[in-house]
Amino acid sequence: MTDASLKRWSYTALVLPGVLIYAAVIVIPIFYSLGLSFTEWSGFGAPEFVGFDNYTTIFSDPVFLHGLRNNLLIVAVSVLGQIPIGFVLAYVLYRRMVKGRDFFETMIFLPITISAVVVAILWDRIFSPWGLFTALVRDITANPDWIMTISENRQLAIVPILFVILWRYIGIYMIIYLANLQKIDSSMIEAAVLDGASESQILTRVILPSMLTVLFYTSILAISGSLKSFDLIFAMTAGGPAHYTEVVSIYMYNNTFTFNKWGVGNAVSIVIVLLSVGLITVVRSLFGRVTRRYGWEE
Amino acid sequence: MANKRIRTAGPVGKTIAYAVMLLFTLLTVVPIIWLFYSSFKTHGQIVQAPLPPTLEPTFSNYVEAWTVGNLGTYLLNSIIYTGVATTATVFLGLSVGYGFAKFRYRISKILIGFFMIGLLITVHSVIVPLFIIETRIGLANTRLGVIIPYIAFGLPLAVYLGMAYIRSMPDSIMESARIDGAGYLAIFRRIIVPMSAPVMTTITILTFISHWNEFVFVFVLTSGERLRSLPVGINAFAGTLVNNFGLQFAALVIGIVPMILFYLFFHRQMKQGFAEGAVKV
User: Fold this and answer.
1) pTM of the entire predicted model
2) Any chain A CB within 8 A of the CB of B240?
3) Which of A111, B31, B109, B155 lies at a C-alpha separation of 20 to 30 Å from B53?
4) Ramachandran angles phi, psi of B140, nearest 5°
5) Do A175 and B271 touch (CB under 8 A)?
6) What pLDDT digit, counting tens, does each position of A89-135 carry?
7) How far apart are CA B52 and CA B234, in angstroms?
8) pLDDT per residue over B170-192, tens digit each?
9) Any chain A CB within 8 A of the CB of B258?
10) Residue of B14, B122, B137 to mutate, testing the A interface (most A Cβ within 10 Å of its Cβ)
11) Partner A, chain B 52-91, Cβ-Cβ below 8 Å
12) Side-chain half-sphere of B19: how many Cα atoms within 13 Å?
């Protein structure tokens, strides 16, 4: 066997298994899904072609639109909550403002290791009339009958879930920012100090620009993570009561497996893909604009 | 460290900093502590007085959760799914990474882009068609039917990390092995893999966490108790126990104990793994 053909065989042997598994699980299903999204199918018999009907059904369904709104709220909370708070915590630790950094790091990171299902059930109990939160509020407000009624409000029912999502993921961002802060070239900071820069100036002129790439990638992480939040919400409220806390992924699950509308379910699938790609493109162009405007090109 | 050069924060700043850190730490830890000591109470005790811990612990909660809740089976399944999928992901990440990093073929560029798109695709985009396909080919409701998707979703990051790491290995090592007559696969086995311990650790930790806590695939692609993993099992068992909080909490604690132990021993590596995974991306 020649050198060249040995090389080709080896490359194939090394790369093909991974590529095949990946294609079989991710690429093919998406195209299959695209096809099915244009049909009406109950899971039995043959699918029936209906063009864009499923898509129009989805976008005129108030349940879907409410779910979409909830998803966007989750994205907003993730990007505007987890990221800044994570950054603040990382900065506090980086600047050695407190002792016992390892301890704080370890504790705040802990929730991420707990499965979403456990987190969901735990917090559902904490907010329940017999839970920790309720007991504390009752003690503080001296009202022995207080219970949380926010889930009866269509617009606000999602708030407890937003809080739990925030609770669970702040640690990741803190760790990522901390690691990146530590990678900043210390000579840049020393130079700034020697030039007489104040802390806030160092923060805005030196530190934040170096973090721009990480901020970009963590925004993407936050967005794709928020669109994924199925496990936690499903286990906590299953989208209830009355679809108040439903998100698009649960809508998809219900349509497919509960109502047996597979065409619609697949259409929602495709919408989710388009949504993530769309949002990420928006973030990318935003970051591009910010970078160019402030001259922070790397 | 440059930190010593910047004026350290004054006492006001420090107090606020401590307050903030303490607040978030309590926020994180108190729910878990409450869960833990409440799991030793009976339902009646919890409902009447949620706040204080009990002086007469009820261990039967745990016994019952384990036996009635069938948590042993679920634990075993979680171990199988996570163990097999993580091992496969690590090795495939390295082998594909080696192919992309050191074999200069143009097709690698296309395939790399192919894999990177996977980072944007969520489980939900594929779960419905995957269910249909697996049912058609008879893979639904099998262990393999869960493990293969796990591997596929772990691959983009594993390949990326493996590729980046192997790329930084000097070509000369491989070239001299070639001159000595070693085939590429032998080089992979004898040189690349042993030298890749750090990135293998990172990939292992990241995929381990995501697989262990995974819910959707097992939930949709399997049915019945025999194949359930811990998260799905706990949702089925504990999620419906609205009348016995003590029992429910015991099940939850059993559900999180493996991960917490893992975390206590490996938290440094875990944090490093997460930071690295995101930094490289």
Assistant:
1) 0.84
2) no
3) A111
4) -65, 150
5) yes
6) 888 888 877 778 888 888 888 888 888 889 998 998 888 888 888 88
7) 25
8) 888 888 888 888 888 888 888 88
9) no
10) B122
11) none
12) 6
